Amino acid sequence: MANLKALAKDTAIYGLSSIVGRFLNYLLVPLYTAKLSAASGGYGIITNMYAVVALMLVLLTFGMETTFFRFANKEGENPARVYSTTLISVGFVGLLFVALTLLFISPISLVMGYAEHPSYVWVMAITVAIDAFLCIPFAYLRQQKKAIKFAALKLLNIAMSICLNVVYFAMMDGNDVGYAFYINLFCSSMLALCMLKELTGFRYVLDTALLRRMLSYSWPILVLGIAGILNQTADKILFPYIYKGANMNEQLGIYGACSKIAMIMAMITQAFRYAYEPFVFGNAKERDSKEMYAKAMRYFIIFTLLAFLAVMAYLNILRYIIGQDYWTGLRVVPIVMAAEMMMGIYFNLSFWYKLIDKTIWGAIFSGIGCAVLIAVNVIFVPKYGYMACAWGGFAGYGTAMLVSYFVGQRYYKIDYPLKDIAVYTLLAIGLLATIHYGERLGFGFIGNLAFNTLCLCIFAGYMIKKEYTNIKNNVK
After folding, report:
1. Can you tell me the distance from the alpha carbon of 207 to that of 79, in angstroms, rounded to the nearest whole number?
2. 0.85 cut: is pTM over it?
3. How far apart are CA 251 and CA 38, in angstroms?
């Protein structure tokens, strides 16, 4: 129980920084969508570029973040040597990537559709290389349980970004998309300076024998990461190539802006992940570890369902995060949120193969999910546009989640409280249907808010009563 309390504490710190940080980042969405109209396609460019950046971040870290946790906690390994070897390997790959990008900037820009703006490409290439390198000292902070410093640096980076964006887009009334990328590069560079303490004061040593063992562990995680990030970004990367309409950037911008509202689920998942990864590896030898994992899954699902209902209950308020000419895409919000929730469940399920050093399974599961997502996009986007993107993510994550669960129960059986999870899920679905039905009853804006709040309170009340009883009776 003490370990679960420590997990809750770290999740709260990481969660606060993640939620506050994402909320502050949301301030950029109304700013961008106000200065860059849907018709201009400017936000579509931002959506596409950051999707590519997310994929490149996975490639440039090549699974070494999780590998660092595994080897730093592995008996017989020197944590300092593991850290140094990880930094050198990730740093070298990042430098090589930047050099190749600058060397072939013209053909790369042409293929990406930015032949007239190659600066978009090389600026973001340098930025993502810096960010990939910084993932390792950030992982070091998590491994050292320095959650407060981790959170402070993340928030500082976001605060700098917001201030500079406000200065250019609001105070200077700018509308050049490229400045969003220049600002990102500046902030990443400043963040690197803030982490000098984590990057100095020790001897850099590349242990090639250790690196070979780490790469053997990490390459399936890389495949897993590629498939996982493609599940999140493939639709936004592929959209310009498969959507047939002339308003491609406009449609992609609408989808990207509305998906931002659904990202509260990604915040919760990310916060949980930051605390859960070191928690799992650090407690793998505990006698009651499987019981703790089952409880963690239960609480994760409960609170994500609560967050899902909260967003849907107050969507008429949250929609003001984006410009009104983007509101036509709000119907993707519940679909994207459900997909993000399944991604979080899949992440929680994924630790069984990491703990038994069979990370190849993760690559298989994510690959299957990614194949489903891409197939849905390629087949249906030309006809249904960004709605097919939303359903593609739902289908991809759902497939990966189910396959991981059934295979995992065979190799690393955990008795998850499936009955309680099913009851919570059905209750949430029923209340969501009630919220949608209430919109047709003509209560008016205030009336609908009151009705939706009542629905949310029903779920929260059931949750409090049920979980209090379980804690009292010491139920798993």
Report:
1. 12
2. no
3. 8
